[in-house]
Design brief:
This protein is α+β, with helices and mostly antiparallel strands. 35% of the residues lie in helices and 31% in strands. The structure holds zinc ion (ZN). The site of zinc ion has 6 residues, from α2.
Length: 387
């Protein structure tokens, strides 16, 4: 027997009483069927409700809700015996947020259709945001226009009407639908903003959505994927972002309005400092090279915290004076290195060093970079033998 769907009579009903029809153990709990329910099963892009069922024998948690052939199965953590009466209560904050998101999505999709003749070809209500995939491209500017129009429809507090119109009325109705539907079609109308076939749950008045905000726009197949937030989710995101901007402002001693400018200035400072450090390091390389007698057979330096690029440039600077030059920097238990020569094949010396010191690396005749699993003493011992 089909479950009586109380959520279609009144999407705002939070509690109800029902009789347990069956209760079967499943792999992750119990699949419990009631003669009627307020629990919305996952479907039409909208996630399932959560909540509790309470019988004489105690309270059970409803963890998931699914529909199969018109029968709604509540996945619970504990059983309730068939024929018992149960009081059900859905988690209202969760459900209301989903209703805000779902109605918000309809308005945004309706505006996209009206302004740019694009279809919503994919819709997902995730825990972080709602996504809409469109049938064609949309620029950032167009997306802002959609957002502004959608919010205007929300603030005009348009009515949201959910109903099953008779077939003759349906025939002439230009409604959005993702796929061909057989049987009774449920139409969700947001007056003057959208008309869509949908089995999900909605707010009664658009004003309850509060706000919609597009927070992401990326290319997706032949269209775009819009990430959006509505109602409470948009509010929570706004609160989080205000806090983040305030923190950035405090870190940079800037006004919140100027946080972006302050970050830009900081980035410019950092890149200026990086350039200064680079120039200082090159002067230091030249100073080290100048300390080596021209034509010395081997020159090497150990330095802390050297990046691979600095090792490379130091070894090349040294190689202008010494026949073979190497630079080492500690890395974990071993050392990374750069080995350079302008007159002999650096690869040959590096190969010998790698064999002796459990290392690896690669490069060209003038320069090899790699690492050895050896301490400074072992490396120096090896180099002395080469000298
Ligand atoms: Zn829908």
């Amino acid at each position: 027997m089909e479950t009586e769907k109380l959520f279609y009579t009144d999407a705002y009903q939070k509690a109800f009483e029902a009789k347990v029809v069956s209760c079967e153990k499943s792999s992750d709990g119990y699949a419990l069927e009631l003669n009627r329910t307020c629990f919305y099963p996952e479907g039409g892009g909208q996630p399932a409700d959560k909540g509790t069922l309470e019988a004489e024998t105690g309270k059970v948690q409803v963890l998931d809700v699914k529909e199969k052939d018109g029968r709604i199965l509540h996945l619970t953590d504990k059983p309730i015996e068939p024929d018992m009466l149960a009081k059900g209560e859905i988690s209202w904050p969760w459900r209301f947020q989903l209703m805000q998101s779902h109605s918000g999505e309809h308005i945004v999709s309706g505006v996209i259709k009206a302004l740019f003749k694009l279809d919503n070809v994919g819709f997902h209500m995730g825990t972080d945001f709602v996504t809409i995939d469109t049938s064609g491209p949309l620029t950032e500017e167009q997306a802002y226009r959609v957002e502004a129009e959608a919010n205007r429809a929300i603030w005009e507090n348009r009515k949201v009407i959910c109903r099953f119109p008779p077939e003759e009325e349906l025939r002439d109705m230009a409604y959005r639908a993702k796929k061909a539907i057989s049987g009774a079609v449920r139409i969700v109308e947001i007056t003057g903003a959208d008309l869509c076939a949908c089995c999900g749950l909605h707010v009664a008045n658009a004003g309850e959505i509060g706000i919609v905000k597009i927070v992401g726009l990326q290319k997706w197949k032949s269209g775009v994927r819009i990430s959006m937030l509505a109602g409470n989710m948009a509010y929570l995101d706004y609160a989080k972002k205000c806090k983040a901007v305030a923190e950035i402002g405090a870190f940079l001693s800037s006004k919140q309005d100027d946080a972006v400018g302050a970050v830009k200035r900081l980035m410019e400072q950092i890149s200026g400092l990086k350039e200064q450090i680079y120039q200082m390091n090159r002067r230091e390389d030249e100073r080290k090279a100048a300390s080596i007698p021209q034509g010395q057979k081997l020159a090497f330096f150990f330095e802390d915290n050297m990046a691979p690029d600095d090792l490379r440039l130091l070894s090349l600077a040294l190689a202008k004076r010494a026949v073979v030059a190497a630079a080492f920097s500690k890395a974990g238990e071993g050392h990374k290195y750069a080995l350079a020569s302008l007159s002999v094949d650096a690869r040959k010396i590096a190969a010998e060093m790698n064999a002796a010191l459990n290392g690896r690396g690669g490069g060209k005749s003038e320069l090899v970079q790699g690492s050895v699993a050896a301490d400074r003493e072992s490396i120096e011992k090896f180099l002395e033998k080469c000298n």
